Amino acid sequence: MSRSLLSVIASGSLLLCAGFPMPTLAAESPGGLPPSPAASATVDRSPVDLVLDPAGDWIASANQTAGTVSLVGVEEGRVWDEVLVGQRPAAIASDADSESLLVTCSYSSELVLLHVNGRKLQITGRIAVPGQPHGIAVNSDGRRAYVAQTALD
User: Fold this and answer.
1) What letter would DSSP give residue 76?
2) pLDDT tens, 43-59?
3) Which candidate, 88, 89, 146, places its Cα nearest to that of 114?
């Protein structure tokens, strides 16, 4: 698992920083999201956390303002897929085989499980979490996740 706010691909050819706008094209707008602006414009999704798959083929970002997770092809530097996950995603992590992603959504108080299938993301489950979940870590065999929480009632 590779998690950070700054990811650099081994070849040094791509640098993706959380917190900066990510470009998108109108044709790439995921279902359920508002239409994208003109192709030359950028949309501020507010990516706040990233995970890089072990093969270096894709990066998934938790986008706080948009309430989405984006799957970005490293080689192309383009958004492959994007799904609405909940209110204010805060952190993202992958399991041991990088086929599943876990995302904390702090304002909707949930942990969202997604499956990575090629260039597509699919939500496969949701777990209610008390308070506002933020950080997340997955153990080495991918069978247990630990979630940091704030604002417990």
Assistant:
1) T
2) 678 899 999 998 899 99
3) 89
Q: Is 115 left (phi over 0), alpha (psi -120 to 50) or beta?
A: beta
Alpha-carbon distance of 85 to 67, in angstroms, equals: 6
Q: Are 62 and 69 in contact (CB under 8 A)?
A: yes
Q: Compute the distance between CA of residue 45 and CA of residue 113 in angstroms, rounded to an integer.
A: 20
In 3D space, the residue among 53, 78, 149, 144 whose CA is nearest the CA of residue 109 turns out to be 149
Encoded tokens for 66: 């948009």
Structure confidence by residue, pLDDT tens digits, 117-148: 999 999 999 999 988 998 999 888 888 889 99
CA 88/CA 85 separation, integer angstroms: 9
Structure tokens at 117: 């299938």
Q: Record the tokens describing residue 58, joined without a space.
A: 């894709």
pTM of the model: 0.72
Q: Is 100 left (phi over 0), alpha (psi -120 to 50) or beta?
A: beta
Count of other CB atoms within 10 angstroms of residue 151: 11
Q: Phi, psi (5° rounding) for residue 112?
A: -110, 130
Name the nearest CA neighbour of 130 among 144, 114, 110: 110
In the beta sheet, which residues pair with residue 81? 71
